Amino acid sequence: MTIDLITRAHDHVGNTAIADQHGTYSYRRLLQDSARVAARLLGGRPDLEEARVAFLARPSFEYVAMQW
């Protein structure tokens, strides 16, 4: 399954994706960090099989990386 938003982000890896109180972050960084979050959640499994996931974070780059 491909998510259009993620696919399009690959076309803009050098552009700024997020600007928050700590700095600016590129789409490249967002894709990398969100992939790390996904890998941790999956724990080697191919799919979460609709398991529920909850996260709590302040509005920030980290919030977006977790959401992606």
Describe the structure.
- With 68 residues, the protein is α+β, with helices and mostly antiparallel strands.
- The chain is built from 3 helices and 2 strands.
- The chain has a two-stranded antiparallel ribbon with strand order 1-2.
- The radius of gyration is 13 Å and the shape is globular.
- The mean pLDDT is 92.
Overview in brief:
This protein is an alpha+beta fold. The chain is built from 3 helices and 2 strands; from the N terminus they run αββαα.
Termini separation = 14 Å
Beta content:
5-15%
What count of helical segments does DSSP give?
3
> Which ranges are low-confidence, i.e. pLDDT below 50, for 5 or more consecutive residues?
none
What brief labels describe this structure?
alpha+beta, two-stranded antiparallel sheet
List the helices and strands and how they pair.
Blueprint: H1 4-9, E1 16-20, E2 23-26, H2 27-42, H3 61-67
Helix pairs in contact: 2-3
